[in-house]
Write a structure and sequence with these properties.
Layout: H1 5-11, H2 15-54, H3 64-108, H4 112-115, H5 120-135, H6 137-162, H7 165-213, H8 215-221, H9 224-276, H10 282-300, H11 302-307, H12 309-322, E1 341-350, E2 359-367, E3 371-375, H13 382-390, E4 397-402, E5 405-408, H14 419-424, H15 432-441, H16 445-449, H17 468-481, E6 486-490, H18 498-511, E7 516-521, E8 532-535
Parallel strand pairs: 3-7, 3-8, 5-6, 6-7
Antiparallel strand pairs: 1-2, 1-4
Length: about 550
């Protein structure tokens, strides 16, 4: 249960909405039980009066008060249910917002290495199914359980008032057992199955996505059918375990209903004893048993919720593990740098967790406004070094101080959005004129001027509507729009032909004027203008 603690604390930050939502659920439940109880009382009273009149005995009945009560509870039940659905679903959406903002905040502070530990399919599972398992925690589990306990207490008090304390104690005992069967009993019987089911569903979801992504390779290797058959076996195992969980939940639901019905029978039997003693009227006799039968609606919500609690805890555990905040070595602020120095790496070690160091005792000092090129063959550690200099990969040893920087990663990253939105990530305050000017420098202005939407052209998933070279130039334009004094460029001209690369490199001279530049590439022809070049070996 401790896995749920941080998420429960997040949910409980909205106590006002939770209380109002709980009140609406309670009002709906009480209206339903009251409607059943008053209807039962009214029918019994009407039947008794009819029998007395048939026997020639004078008898009267007030039709207006119970009739009005029945109409009132029927309307109030409908109204409260509607208000509860609208209000609590709005609350759930607000809680979902809180959970996602908290989750994204934690992810934004995680290192690139941490985010790279999971595949895209696994992150999709975290951000969808695992989050969905938490956002209804209040509406599906917390509120119904608390209100079931409260309604049970009210019914026991009603039994003590209408019948006697002995009957109330026996009825209360049966209801407490029923509540335990519907909650704790279900959880103990299903949590391991549900947790394992949650893990296997994620594994199956990941495998299906990978099957779709690798369909061409599977087809070329002639393995499509065998891999699909393996997926079907995995799916069958998942559904088999789900059926086992549902069976256990069903038996506990049946047991809960049995205990509620037994409490109604007990109340009816005790009522007959009191009726024969002349201390209880016939209509009041049936009021309590019918109210107890109304509890079945309250308890019916609980077994399914507690049957999924194990999966919810497993989802919370995965989110806590994979999205945890970690200790990161902070990059020193610019005031800690020596005068007129943009970057200072002092005896640093560059390594990925679990692997041998790529560099040890690496030293680099760059003065303001200088342009440094770093060359090395593929696999020499250029991108890892760039990640360290940009602050995405923590320094294993030594110290690093630098000014604020902007970083063009080796992999081109464009978002499924418009050209304008992608460019404004570099400089949110940039004007339309500045955006077109930068596109002109990147030789993209004519390309997008002919588009119907121009700057609002949709780029598609990961820039799929652009060629590799066009996408790279959009990413480079976004970086050059950023006013940061330190610019780190990893393979800035990937996908560009030699002539285009040469023309853009010349234009970058003026665009980078006054800035400190660290550019990394595999060859000198892939670097913009530099003051000196460092060669990496290994």
């Amino acid at each position: 249960m401790r896995e749920l603690k941080p998420w429960l604390e997040l949910i409980l930050k909205r106590p006002g909405r939770l209380v109002v939502g709980g009140f609406l659920i309670l009002a709906t439940l009480l209206s339903g039980i009251a409607l059943l109880a008053v209807s039962g009382w009214f029918l019994t009273k009407t039947a008794l009066v009819g029998l007395l009149l048939a026997a020639g005995v004078a008898a009267t009945i007030n039709l207006y008060v119970p009739g009005g009560a029945i109409r009132f509870f029927a309307v109030s039940r409908t109204v409260f249910r509607y208000l509860e659905r609208v209000y609590n679903h709005d609350t759930v959406l607000r809680l979902l917002t809180d959970i996602r903002v908290n989750l994204f905040s934690r992810l934004s502070r995680a290192t690139r290495v941490r985010r790279g530990e999971l595949s895209g399919a696994q992150w999709l599972s975290r951000l969808t199914s695992d989050v969905d398992a938490l956002d209804t925690l209040y509406l599906r589990l917390i509120a119904p359980t608390a209100l079931a306990g409260l309604v049970t207490l009210l019914v026991v008090v009603l039994a003590a008032i209408l019948f006697d304390v002995g009957t109330a104690v026996l009825v209360g005992l049966l209801l407490v057992i029923a509540l335990a069967v519907a909650t704790v009993g279900v959880y103990l019987r299903t949590w391991q199955l549900a947790a394992r089911q949650s893990d296997r569903q994620e594994e199956l979801r990941t495998a299906v996505i990978e099957h779709i992504e690798g369909f061409s390779e599977l087809t070329a290797a002639g393995r499509t059918g065998k891999h699909a058959a393996w997926l079907m076996r995995q799916a069958h195992q998942v559904t088999s375990e789900q059926a086992k969980t549902d069976t256990r939940v069903g038996w506990h639901l049946a047991g809960t209903h049995l205990l509620v019905n037994l409490s109604a029978v007990l109340a009816l039997w005790a009522g007959f004893v009191l009726f024969q003693a002349g201390t209880l009227s016939g209509p009041v006799l049936v009021l309590l048993p019918i109210a107890l039968l109304g509890l079945a609606e309250v308890y019916a919500m609980l077994p399914d919720a507690f049957g999924k609690l194990g999966a919810t805890i497993a989802s919370a555990a995965r989110l806590n593990r994979d999205c945890r905040e970690e200790e990161r070595q902070a990059v020193n602020e610019k005031q800690e740098l020596p005068p007129e120095t943009a970057l200072l790496a002092d005896n640093i070690t560059v390594k990925h967790a679990g692997y041998a160091p790529l560099f040890t005792r690496f030293n680099l000092e760059i003065e303001d406004g200088k342009r440094i090129g770093i060359l090395g063959h593929s696999g020499s550690g250029k991108s890892s070094l760039a990640d360290v200099l940009a602050g995405l990969l923590p320094v294993a040893q030594g110290s690093l101080a630098r000014r604020d920087c902007v970083y063009l990663t080796q992999k081109t990253v464009l978002f499924e959005d418009t050209l304008r939105a992608n460019l404004l990530l570099g400089s949110p305050e940039a004007s339309e004129t500045e955006l077109w000017s930068m596109l002109e420098q990147m030789e993209l202005a004519e390309r997008f001027a002919t588009e119907p939407d121009q700057l609002d052209t949709w780029l598609g998933s990961a820039g799929s509507r652009l060629s590799g070279g066009e996408a790279r130039r959009v990413a480079l334009a976004r970086v050059l729009l950023n006013p940061a004094p330190l610019v780190i460029l990893d393979e800035p001209f990937t996908g560009l032909d030699a002539e285009t690369r040469s023309r853009i490199a010349k234009r970058m001279e003026s665009l980078l004027e006054g800035k400190t530049v660290v550019s990394l590439a595999h060859g000198s022809d892939a670097l913009p203008g530099t003051d000196r070049v460092i060669y990496l070996s290994g």
